[in-house]
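Homework help thread (please don't just give me the answer)

Our assignment gives two proteins as sequence + structure token strings and asks us to describe the second one. The first is just a warm-up. Here they are:
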Amino acid sequence: MASGHEKNQNAASTKNPNAAAIQQQNTAAINKPDLKPRDGAQRKTVLITGASRGIGAATALAAARDGFNVAVNYVRDAAAAQRVVGQVQALGRRAVAVQGDAGNHDDIKRMFSEAEAQLGPVTALVNNAGITGPIGPFSRTSDDTIARVFQVNVLGAMACCREALACFERHGQPGVIVNVSSVAARTGSPGEYIHYAASKAALDAFTLGLAREVAVTGTRVCAVAPGTTHTDIHATAGEPDRPARVAPRIPMGRLAHPEEIAETIAFVLSPAASYITGTVISCTGGL
């Protein structure tokens, strides 16, 4: 008579013909953990949107340290992107600056094509690019602002994920996707930018659904939700002194540094997170 475990395995195999092979791969991974150095010779390439500054730039350096070649996406500031490229190269990795609007589908296709041509197959994606629009009450937020925020933060991120998945499938290897969300998805950001909060909540839902849809392929999809961080997003939104205003609300009493968020993203990209998918990791100082 078959044991309960065997019955469960047989049922899973009937439901999913690939289940037996996946179970064997998972068992092998448990029995033979990957003990390669962090910068092992295996070629890894990550495309990071909005990587010329802030969290994106810090993530590029953390990924390079961990063995990734890096495609540094930027929209306008070519000089800043080239500085990040130089810093990645100083760590012994290859890098290329890839111009493109992360909210434009044609640009996104070109970004992936250029990254693959220069660095080889993209094995990881960090959807970091995001915008808030001006700070203020929702009643004064224009339709154009809302549309642009959703175009970049949600539709653009979805398009990037589609291109990444196509690349993973084309080259026959699973990959990793990290979507950079925000604590605003939980707080709602009343009086500041609830349209931005809504866009990040949509990104969280998308992350969960996509992760569950592609888990059978071995590809992992997670989100990292930063709290308020020392970047120029506050000045861009029209309130450069916002960090000082919001710091007292944070249990740890301070804002995050971009490098602290980058380390969380780097962890999710790493083999150490091999059994983590379909979740949003908060990096918020206690909020």
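The one we have to describe:
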Amino acid sequence: MMSFNSIFLSTSLILAMSFISNRICAIGVQSIPFVENYDIVDYEKSENWAALPTKQDSADLTPKDLATHEMPFDIDVFFLYPTSFTKADERWNATIDDAKINEKTDNASIKFQASIFNKTGKVYAPRYRQAHIKAYFSKDHESARQALDFAYQDVRAAFIYYLEHYNNGRPFILASHSQGTTHAQRLIKEFIDKKPLQKQLIAAYLVGLPVLKNSFYTIKPCLTPEETGCFCSWRTYKTGYEPKTNIPFDEIAVINPITWTTGLAPADKSLHKGSVLADFNQLKPKSQTAQIYKGVILTNKPKFRGSFLFTSKNYHVGDYNIFYRDVQENSRLRAKTYLQTQQGN
């Protein structure tokens, strides 16, 4: 029998991908004006973190099929989750203590995405007052901008608190998905790119949104599996999909999340390390292909219980976990390479 988490993820794959692929302009409700005067989030409180090394959370979980003796390195992973505030709502931003939204975040993104990195380092994932998904599609551009700006202020405060109280000078990976990637790019520009902190950056995984190759001054797209100080980005669609964007395809950064190169040749299933889909405990290796095509990744339709109901060609929600073990092994390789390089200097 499928667990609640399995049913939830399958439903999310169907519903949330439909949101993104169809580029909805509104959620069908009237929006209340943006509200600025919220209290500042206290990141000293562990409940304001979705993942923290000092407490048990969904980022600690490991699929049973992936029970290995790999020990994490002495590095950190700062993870920014995607939008889970998707149901029709007149608010522009979620509250920090919304139990249903937090449960949704924990049972989906933290479990199926952030947990990828627990074999690489200590995982930190702050809760933040995320913008409603309509911020990406609404015609009310000013309110949408303010909602995302407000969410970023939480992310920014959490990152500062992390640096001042948790990091202790350790190298780190910055990983994000969707709305998280919107905020991660701003963090890089404000705190990392051409700043002293850049020397601690192992790599950034900026996934789920188009990221331009020239987004940053000195942090460039990764070109090889072991490269450090760079960023990886991809968006996943079904083979046969024709991308539609106003951005020239050759300006979008994209890496193949199986080969970890930027070549256009397809990676066949024999190279795929493994997906983790509806059943969190089941690793499905050699089940996916990957090919770079016009700024995105094309792959075959994932198979999981109920997948026959899933007809979208947009695999946005599966960007990470379709390549679960691939990302995990690659993040470990980059961390290992970074640490070996530092020891040699």
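TA reply:
I won't write it for you, but here's a hint about the kind of observation we're looking for: The chain has one domain: 4-344.
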